[in-house]
Task: inverse folding
């Protein structure tokens, strides 16, 4: 290839909705730190080693994101593009480098481009090793949103571009675990565009560990370079939206998995424990303590579950926004390219993005009823605990009332009897078969019998009321258990429907 260039486009999250306006995510400056490390170890450009001294977000070598506030430009430098200098090679040509750093809303973006000098020198696989592309792979850059390696070159019309593109794609990741797959071909500004996705076998679903490769081969002397320069901002924004869509969908799948684990624990453990506690004929103090503990556990699970559902709704909004941004960029690129753009870019919107967007909405629809179940469980257990506690207090009061009635009635009877004791002048003697019983003993016995009689009356009155309440509680518990079992069957059916949508 002649007029060759190798560009790294990397995107790293600076802040999210959870941070305050003047705060950033942990390791927000990781992108700049790793670029400096690359400059110190492999691509030893002087300007790359000293990158921090050129960025607005650094002061005296220390990261200070507050310096970015109030800027009216996306650039993170005061001088625009940074000339990083050049490096000699053993084949007689130099490699020049320039870097463009940006802050795009909540995202750090960087364009690091390497070009040979002279530009008309032919670059093939042996020469590519001087560009040390392995230092630009995800394992070294660690951009949280992902990255793209972009190659541009011009060849003769007789060149087999398919074979050439595959050779370069494999050479970019040679010596690593990354495997370039998913080849797609299209046309961009009159040149052939080849897309590869280099997957990490250890984390195949993590877009931050993948390397998105775009190889543009100009075999028709088209004005691709000029048009690409004109569409630079749109191409960069298209790549930002592309990587964000992949990143957001991955987060959504993770949060859905978290919510399913929480709900599974509710179904398998919490509801089973709840049914076990309320299935008894009576609830003792240990059961009441168990219900209180269970209520606390479910309350925490409900909070975690609600956060998962809220995050999914946020991800749905975010992916919808980035899909819209992607469409706008693609439309502008088509305008610059006289109505033409790679078909696989359009397919990404019409097929992949549509499917992912619908999947997130399906997950939300499936999980939402579960949130109601959590709330009903907490409310139900709270009601049972409060009712049981109230009934135990009622029983205590009833016992006090029974004893009060008994002792009160006995005291009245005893008072009446005692009034007549002073009229009996017979001396008090010990109980003996030789002596007739003294009237005092008769009055004492009558008082005791009167006390027990009134206790019995109090017991009959209070227990009739308690029996009615207990019967009502048992009917309530049965209804609750039946309702929870019905909800479980409905949720299982919804889970099957959600899984079917995802697979389709």
Result:
């Amino acid at each position: 290839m002649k007029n060759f260039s190798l560009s790294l486009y990397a995107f790293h999250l600076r802040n999210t909705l959870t941070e305050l306006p003047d705060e950033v995510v942990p390791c927000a400056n990781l992108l700049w730190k790793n670029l400096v490390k690359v400059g110190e170890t492999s691509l030893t450009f002087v300007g790359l080693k000293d990158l921090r001294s050129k960025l607005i977000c650094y002061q005296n070598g220390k990261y200070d994101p507050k310096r970015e506030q109030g800027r009216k430009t996306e650039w993170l430098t005061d001088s625009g593009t940074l000339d990083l200098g050049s490096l000699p090679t053993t084949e007689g040509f130099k490699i020049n480098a320039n870097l463009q750093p940006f802050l795009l809303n909540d995202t750090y973006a960087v364009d690091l481009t390497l070009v040979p000098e002279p530009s008309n020198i032919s670059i093939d696989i042996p020469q590519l090793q001087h560009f040390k592309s392995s230092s630009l792979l995800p394992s070294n850059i660690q951009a949280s949103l992902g990255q793209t390696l972009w190659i541009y070159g011009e060849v003769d019309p007789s060149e087999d571009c398919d074979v050439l593109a595959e050779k370069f794609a494999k050479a970019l990741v040679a010596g690593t675990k990354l495997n370039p797959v998913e080849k797609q071909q299209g046309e961009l500004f009159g040149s052939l565009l080849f897309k590869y996705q280099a997957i990490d076998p250890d984390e195949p679903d993590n877009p931050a560990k993948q390397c998105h490769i775009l190889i543009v081969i100009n075999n028709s002397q088209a004005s691709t370079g000029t048009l690409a320069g004109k569409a630079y901002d749109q191409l960069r924004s298209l790549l930002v939206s592309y990587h964000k869509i992949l990143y957001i969908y991955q987060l959504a799948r993770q949060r859905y998995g978290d919510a399913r684990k929480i709900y599974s624990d509710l179904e398998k453990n919490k509801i089973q424990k709840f049914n076990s506690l309320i299935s008894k004929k009576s609830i003792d103090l240990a059961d009441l303590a168990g219900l209180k503990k269970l209520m606390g556990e479910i309350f925490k699970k409900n909070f975690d579950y609600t956060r998962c559902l809220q995050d999914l709704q946020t991800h749905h909004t975010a992916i919808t926004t980035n899909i819209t941004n992607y469409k706008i960029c693609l439309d502008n690129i088509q305008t610059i390219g006289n109505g033409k753009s790679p078909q696989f870019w359009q397919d990404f919107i019409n097929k992949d993005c549509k499917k992912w967007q619908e999947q997130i909405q399906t997950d939300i629809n499936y999980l939402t009823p579960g949130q109601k179940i959590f709330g009903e469980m907490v409310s139900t257990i709270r009601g049972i605990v409060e009712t049981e506690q109230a009934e135990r207090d009622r029983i205590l009061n009833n016992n006090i009332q029974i004893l009060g009635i008994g002792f009160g009635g006995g005291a009245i009877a005893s008072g009446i009897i005692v009034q007549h004791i002073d009229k009996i002048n017979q001396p008090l003697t010990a109980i003996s078969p030789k002596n007739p019983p003294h009237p005092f003993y008769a009055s004492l016995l009558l008082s005791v019998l009167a006390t027990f009689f009134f206790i019995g009356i109090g017991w009959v009155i209070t227990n009739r009321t308690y029996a009615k309440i207990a019967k009502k509680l048992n009917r309530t518990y049965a209804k609750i258990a039946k309702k929870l079992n019905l909800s479980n069957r409905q949720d299982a059916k919804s889970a099957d429907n959600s899984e079917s949508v995802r697979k389709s």
User: Anything to note?
Assistant: The longest strand covers residues 2-13. Strands lie at 2-13, 58-59, 62-63, 82-88, 94-104, 107-117, 146-154, 179-188, 191-199, 211-218.
